[in-house]
């Protein structure tokens, strides 16, 4: 079985939620600990979270408002209401990812 391949930003998002549920804002702050100098725009984080949900790397575990953002089905226009956790697939990908390879998968 082929191991899942992650992009660098996907790995960092999974790394940020390795020990607890996280929302979009917390993940953004995790990616940018030295604000105001940022590593990437918030829109890239939100886009990557949507891709990771679709690819099964993460799943919503809590919603701040289930009327607007139910856990199932996920309301992609309301990602900022969710708290996410890595799935088994995401955890496996996170554990097998290595930053020291020639280049992260794209």
Q: Briefly, what is this?
A:
This protein is α+β, with helices and mostly antiparallel strands and 106 residues long.
Structure characterization notes:
Helices cover 38% and strands 12% of the residues. Strands 1-3-2 form a 3-stranded antiparallel β-sheet. The chain is globular. It is an alpha+beta fold. It contains 4 helices and 3 strands.
Span of the ends, CA to CA: 20 Å
Proportion in helices: 25-40%
Number of strands: 3
Sheet with the most strands? 3 strands, antiparallel
Secondary structure category: alpha+beta
Radius of gyration: 14 Å
Number of helices: 4
State the strand order across the main sheet: 1-3-2
Q: Overall 3D geometry?
A: globular
Average pLDDT level: 88
| N-to-C order of helices and strands | HEHHEEH
Strand content: 5-15%
Name the poorly predicted regions: none
Give the tags.
106 residues, alpha+beta, 3-stranded antiparallel sheet, 38% helix, 12% strand, globular
């Amino acid at each position: 079985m082929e191991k899942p391949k992650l992009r660098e930003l996907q790995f960092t998002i999974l790394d940020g939620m390795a020990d607890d549920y996280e929302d979009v804002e917390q993940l953004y702050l995790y990616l940018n600990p030295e604000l105001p100098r940022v590593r990437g725009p918030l829109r890239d984080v939100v886009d990557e979270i949507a891709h990771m949900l679709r690819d099964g790397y993460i799943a919503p575990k809590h919603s701040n408002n289930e009327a607007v953002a139910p856990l199932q089905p996920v309301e992609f226009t309301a990602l900022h209401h969710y708290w996410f956790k890595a799935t088994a697939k995401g955890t496996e990908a996170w554990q097998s990812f290595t930053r020291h390879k020639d280049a992260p998968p794209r």
